[in-house]
Write a structure and sequence with these properties.
heterodimer; A: alpha+beta; seven-stranded mixed beta sheet; B: 206 residues; two-stranded antiparallel sheet; 6 helices; 9 strands
């Protein structure tokens, strides 16, 4: 193999050459692969404002090549480092149009044969010297089969008194090979799944219908070896350029060169990229949920409308059993006792409550649908994903609790007109209680409600609203029933002194609810925000007491009131900015503690574990979801359940939806749900995941595990 | 559901995939690393599946390439290997150079070269037919990959951030592999998951 000797000799020779050059660099560096020469071009002479070029002329040995600014799958671009007198400057390389250089399954972009890399030269306005000394350190990688990194030191002294045109032909040829910047060319590009879609019009007529090459100036974006799928339509070239499966860049702006077959010089294009690049380690886009097979929930999206309405009705009724509705219902029990003897008032109150519930459900659903339409990745329970909403609810429940304990009376704080309106219109009061019940109940998705909601948000708006109305009706139904059959009411104790005690006692569930809300708020924000919120609540209590406590003299009320309002303003001015600052990163109620068997959920993780044949259990949860927290602390903490999980090698994943999370919302949608809790078991090998009941019993989980 | 569908489509189109291996239809970061089985320089069969539950680094190597020599002669690659294997990481050097290439090294010679350079990979694999290289889309020597214990590809790209042949640049460059291994072993996401590999072309068989 004669080449072997050349190979061994080449670096040695190069070393000797380089050593020799280092002593007295000249304009030419020769290696076994290239002859490189520093050249200059100034057809009108050297001087400020004149067209002047420096350049490195490279003559490659046959089949050897050096690289373009984007070398393609391997290789490195040639680099030039200039050393010029003060004030003189060399610009960027004006790269000639590259060639595609396929090597096996790879493609490089570069040059063979004769090449000139021109660089514009500028001189300062006061330049008057007779000579211009130019020094250059150049590095290039020259490859055939073998690659050899080479470098050279070049020096050239130019006479400024004469024109320089000895290399005019080479510079003219290089200029001709530069990608043309044509005035009529317009280009646009957009990120699509797996491809960059490029659209160019105004290209030369002779190019129409031809297969063009696309050379992006940024490396690591496209699959260099894969030809773009292109088409011509009325003079517009549209191409889907495949993206690299190991893409390392996502430029906002793409500059590229297009070439037509047979033509040496290309056309320069540049465009801002529309759309967003996926993360570099993002898994390629999931198939659309609509394309996925029917969700596995027993009552999934395949549910008919009538069945869904019925389920919504039953689910709504079951909402009354949810812990978060309980305090509000207690309020209504008071109402029963008050009106036990007035059947008309009872029925009317029941209807008003029903109306309040249904209207709120429909209104919330309407907002949800509108936001969905706006592209927001939201799901049911979203109201409680906002700390501001939680803080407002905490304030509301504090005030209700204070009112129940008798710290202040609404009658004295409301303007007399409004107070008498409320007194004269108990119906308004009932309706508002209904609204409150819905606000509190919404995050607790009872069984069936999940399926109905999942269906509802994917339905046309009219049908979706009907389902939400059915949910509301279902929730109000038990109360309405009692109103219609007063016999049920008579079972309740007679009104009496106990009512005052009962009313005060009801304050404590309210305060307990405040504790829960503050806990949720703390998960979303941080300890500082919690302190701010608690201060606000204290100030609020102060204001309520100062302004509306019975039996306070007007003068004292004025003084105390001013003081209280000032306190509240101070507390609010602390809390509002805290709320506005972004939440602390990683504030999660369910962040796995060290040693916890639970791992954070991700779509990829589930796919991997399933691909590896592992059974997987996923707990979709949120801090603000009481049902979730209850299940987490009972069934999911049950030693027998945990032992079963371990015995069957089930990997436990937890998806925490306390804050907005698009990935979790998307997965819930895929499962046909739009709220939490959702419990899913993926058996190894079996296609459809099994969705368990929201009210998770130990038996449910163990039975499901036994079937694995 | 999704996996199921992927499996069935893989069955249906399996034949087509086998025929079209010439294209670099390849591994992506964030996805499962392609499984492979190859023979190491001592003739032992090595499968990626053998190392399930461990971090695995793949390094494309060819002693004939000046960029590979840059990182071996400077002891950067051996150092990175020892650093990784010291953390319980499996390091597989893969040579996809075809037997007809001028710088092809037979297994024994490659093993000897590796030893001389102080290289300390867990194994050095012969991939003369380029199957492993093509499955991973390895373009250059060196071209580096990091696989996490779940078999997910978490890094693909260059050994470091300075794409030059000058060993002096190693000191000031960011060693992406060290970084990816460190982050992944610590259970953190890899901050730079994909970079543009640099070096000589992998000399694949036709």
């Amino acid at each position: 193999m004669p080449r072997l000797t050349t190979l061994i000799a080449a670096p040695l020779l190069l070393l000797c050459a380089a050593a020799a050059m280092a002593a007295t660099p000249g304009p030419v560096v020769k290696t076994d692969q290239v002859r490189a020469e520093l050249v200059a071009h100034a057809p009108q002479g050297l001087g400020p404002g004149q067209p002047m070029w420096l350049g490195l002329a490279i003559e490659h040995q046959p089949h050897w090549h050096t690289y373009w600014k984007n070398p393609g799958d391997s290789g490195l671009p040639t680099t030039l480092q200039w050393e010029l007198p003060a004030g003189a400057a060399a610009g960027e390389i004006a790269w000639p149009t590259p060639q595609r250089l396929p090597i096996g399954p790879l493609v490089n972009y570069g040059y063979e044969g004769r090449l000139l890399l021109p660089v514009p030269l500028t001189l300062p306005a006061d330049f008057k010297a007779e000579t211009l000394a130019v020094r250059l350190h150049a590095e290039w990688l020259v490859c055939k089969e073998v690659c050899i990194p080479e470098s050279g030191e070049f020096a050239l002294t130019l006479n400024t008194r004469s024109t320089l045109a000895a290399h005019a032909a080479a510079f003219d040829a290089a200029a001709a090979r530069r990608p043309a910047e044509l005035a009529g060319v317009r280009s646009a590009g957009e990120v699509a799944p797996g491809a960059l879609v490029v659209r160019v019009d105004g290209l030369p007529a002779s190019w129409h219908g031809k297969a063009l090459q696309f050379f992006p100036e940024t490396a690591g974006v496209i699959e260099n070896a894969a030809p773009p799928a292109a088409s011509w339509q009325a003079g517009t070239w549209t191409a889907r350029v495949p993206l690299s499966s190991q893409r390392s860049a996502g430029p906002d702006r793409v500059a590229a060169v297009l070439t037509a077959p047979g033509g040496a010089n290309g056309v320069q294009i540049a465009f801002a990229v529309a759309g967003t690049w996926p993360a570099l380690d993002a898994v390629p886009a999931l198939p659309e949920p609509s394309a996925a097979p029917a969700a596995p929930a027993p009552a999934g999206p395949a549910l008919g409308l009538a069945a869904a309405l019925l389920l919504a009705l039953v689910g709504g009724a079951l909402l009354n059993l949810m812990p978060c509705v309980f305090p509000v219902l207690s309020l209504k029990v008071l109402g029963f006792a008050n009106h036990a003897n007035d059947r008309r008032a009872l029925v009317a109150g029941g209807l008003a409550y029903t109306a309040g519930v249904v209207v709120s459900f429909v209104a919330l659903a309407g907002v949800l649908l509108l936001l969905r339409a706006g592209g927001e990745q939201l799901g049911w329970g979203f109201q409680l994903q906002s700390p501001a909403v939680i803080a407002t609810l905490a304030a509301l429940f504090t005030l209700i609790g204070l009112n129940l304990t008798g710290v202040f009376e609404f009658g004295s704080v409301l303007p007399s007109g409004l107070a008498s309106l409320r007194a004269r219109h108990p119906l308004v009061d009932s309706a508002l209680t209904g609204v409150l019940a819905v606000a509190v109940a919404s995050p607790c998705t009872a069984p069936f409600m999940g399926a109905s909601l999942g269906l509802a948000v994917t339905l046309p708006a009219g049908e979706a609203l009907a389902i939400f109305a059915a949910l509301g009706l279902g929730m109000a139904l038990p109360y309405l029933a009692i109103c219609v059959w007063p016999a049920l009411v008579r079972v309740l104790p007679r009104p009496g002194a106990w009512m005052a005690h009962f009313r005060a006692a009801m304050a404590f569930p309210m305060f307990a609810t405040v504790v829960w809300l503050i806990w949720v708020f703390g998960q979303q924000t941080g300890i500082d925000a919690v302190a701010a919120l608690l201060s606000t609540l204290v100030a609020l209590a102060f204001v309520a007491w100062a302004l509306a406590a019975p039996g306070v003299a007007p003068k004292a009320r004025a003084v105390l009131g001013t003081l209280a309002v000032a306190t509240l303003v101070a507390a609010l001015s602390w809390m509002v900015p805290v709320l506005a600052t972004p939440a602390i990163a990683g504030a999660r109620s369910d962040a796995p503690a060290a040693g916890s068997p639970w791992q954070p959920w991700s779509v990829e993780k589930v796919a991997e574990l399933r691909a590896a044949g592992q059974p997987v259990f996923v707990d979709f949860t949120a801090a603000w979801c009481v049902t979730c927290q209850f299940n987490k602390r009972t069934t999911l903490a049950d030693p027998a359940v945990l032992a079963d999980f371990e015995a069957r090698g089930v990997v436990l994943l937890r998806a925490d939806w306390t804050r907005r999370d698009a990935a979790i919302t998307a997965e819930l949608t895929r499962l046909g749900r739009s709220g939490v809790p959702v419990y899913v078991i993926y058996a190894p090998g079996s296609g459809a995941p099994q969705v368990l009941s929201e009210i998770l019993s130990v038996a449910d989980v163990r039975n499901a595990l036994a079937k694995l | 559901m999704k996996t199921h569908r992927i499996l069935s489509s893989a069955l249906v189109f399996g034949a087509a995939f086998v025929v079209s291996t010439a294209a670099l239809a390849v591994a992506s970061v964030g996805q499962a690393a392609p499984a492979f089985t190859a023979t190491d320089t001592s003739g032992k069969t090595v499968s990626l599946a053998d190392y399930k539950g461990k971090h695995v680094v793949l390094e494309w190597v060819n002693p004939g390439c000046p960029y590979v020599r840059k990182h071996y002669d400077s002891a950067n690659m051996p150092g990175t290997q020892k650093d990784a294997t010291g953390q319980g990481v499996v390091w597989l050097a893969v040579n996809s150079t075809n037997t007809g290439a001028y710088d092809y090294m037979p297994p024994a010679k490659l093993a000897g070269w590796m030893k001389d350079k102080g290289g300390a990979p867990t194994a050095t694999l012969m991939d003369t037919d380029g199957k492993v290289g093509r499955a991973y889309g390895a373009r250059t020597t060196p071209h580096m990959y990091v696989i996490d214990p779940n078999g997910k590809l978490v890094y693909a790209g260059a050994i470091d951030s300075k794409a030059t042949s000058n060993p002096a640049d190693i000191k000031t460059a960011t060693n992406y592999v060290k970084q990816a291994v460190g982050e992944s072993v610590a259970g953190k996401p890899v901050s730079t998951p994909v970079t543009q590999a640099y070096g000589c072309s992998v000399k694949y068989s036709d």
